[in-house]
Amino acid sequence: MNLRRTKITAVSHYLPERRVTNKDFEKTLDTSDQWIFDRTGIRERRFVEKGVGTSSLAAIATKQLLERRGIKAGELDLIIVGTVTPDMFFPSTACLVQEKIGAKNAWGFDLSGACSGFLYALATGSQFIAAGTHKKVLVIGADVMTSIVDPEDRTTCVLFGDGAGVVLLEPAEDGEKGIIDFILKADGSGGQFLYMPGGGRLNPASAETVKKKMHFVHQDGKNVFKYAVRGMAEVSHEILEKNAIPPDSVRLYVPHQANLRIIQAAVDRMKIDPARVAINIDKFANTTAATIPICLSEAAENKTLKKGDLVVLASFGAGFTWGSVLLSWEM
Ligand code: ACO
Fold first, then answer.
1. What span, in angstroms and rounded, lies between the C-alpha atoms of 310 and 304?
2. Which portions of the chain are predicted below pLDDT 50?
3. Residues 192-196: contacts with CB within 8 Å, 24+ apart?
């Protein structure tokens, strides 16, 4: 089978207006701006207002993307949403976004890869273009983490934010490389360190599950940190080695934004110039599936990237899931 090359042709993001600083948490929790910043690199994050769902953030980002690309929603073939905070179990967030933007000719589905959700979705979406069966695939990473984080748990609630990022995938032109390679991994034995036990088949919602706070993120931060440092650094290194790309040929390294110290460890390991690393964790914290497309969208807005620049994306998240994508920027 003759596979087509795939490229990103448009990118956009949306963050809710409401800013919550570390200082704001000092009012309700035994924490401090200093502690949060020193341990994570986070200064502030954005939170949605009550009643605003993941599909709304994703739809706003997507409408802007369609305008930027100059196409109509009806031209989209497929919508894939990486998220762990769907508006509801079903219908899928992809269907809700389809309705909100009027993408009448697209089908779609949600993909659960936690912080690696966007990379999993990007790799999945690119297969539909490569196979030649689809021409315009929307890949969204979006999460409203405030819906699953315990506002009374200082060990988790300060780490996350809400947001959405989106890219459009289309067939590359002759001579364009587009998405060059991806390496995706999973290790289910890591599930015990980062999970949300309530709401699924094993612990359906009840007064008891709510009382036991089972509908919130539970994590062993130290273990997640340890595996994330190793996983993200190794997979980023691996994709460069596999493709014989020297680190100084990479124009932009876009790591998942979970903790500045995790990012720094990966950057040290890869020997990449820190000036070529996308960092916005200070402004938006960890928006789970949205961090990478938000970084890409900011890089496009700031004109950091030009056609032909090499970009490495890398993630690590619950599952454990992790991975890396190597691409040539073709916009
Ligand atoms: N403010 C003040 N003190 C706090 C806070 C807080 N917000 N949170 C925890 N502490 C306390 C702890 O209770 C502990 O106190 P103790 O020593 O009296 O028990 C102390 O600070 C040290 O806690 P540690 O957990 O050892 O702190 P650590 O340096 O490991 O940092 C952190 C914690 C930031 C959570 C870190 O482990 C981390 O980032 N882990 C990765 C988790 C993550 O990123 N998860 C996101 C999802 S997965 C992903 O995106 C990769």
1. 12
2. none
3. 192/220, 193/219, 193/220, 193/223, 193/224, 193/227, 193/320, 194/114, 194/218, 194/219, 194/220, 194/224, 194/317, 194/318, 194/320, 195/219, 195/318, 196/84, 196/148
Q: Of 223, 222, 253, which Cα lies nearest the Cα of 237?
A: 253
Backbone angles phi, psi at 221, to 5 degrees: -55, -40
Q: Residues 122, 268, 241, CA angle at the centre, nearest 5°? A: 55
* Helices 54-69 and 93-101: angle between axes, nearest 10 degrees: 50
pLDDT of residue 1: 66
Beta bridge partners of 189: none
Nearest to 134 by CA among 119, 144, 124: 124
Query: Distance (Å, rounded) from C-alpha 127 to C-alpha 159?
Result: 33
d(CA 310, CA 94) in angstroms, rounded, equals 30
Cα 162 from Cα 145, distance rounded (Å): 6
Is the Cβ atom of 155 under 6 angstroms away from ligand 1? yes
Residue of 41, 37, 107, 64 whose CA lies nearest to 263? 41
User: CA-CA distance, 324 to 255, in Å (whole number)?
Assistant: 9
**Ligand 1 centroid vs 33 CA: distance in angstroms?**
14
Mutate to test the pocket of ligand 1, among 219, 224, 294, 316 (most ligand atoms within 8 A of CB): 224
pLDDT at residue 96 in the model: 98
**What is the rounded CA–CA span in Å between residue 98 and residue 117?**
19
Cis peptide before 320 (omega within 30 of 0): yes
> 256, 297, 327, 303: which is closest to 65 by C-alpha?
297
Residues known to be catalytic: 115, 256, 286
For residue 153, count CB atoms less than 10 angstroms from its CB and return exposed for 0-12, middle for 13-18, buried for 19 or more.
Answer: middle
- 12 residue type, one letter: S
Share of the chain above pLDDT 90, in %: 98
Contacts of 213 (CB under 8 A, 6+ apart): 150, 153
Query: 3-class SS at 293?
Result: helix
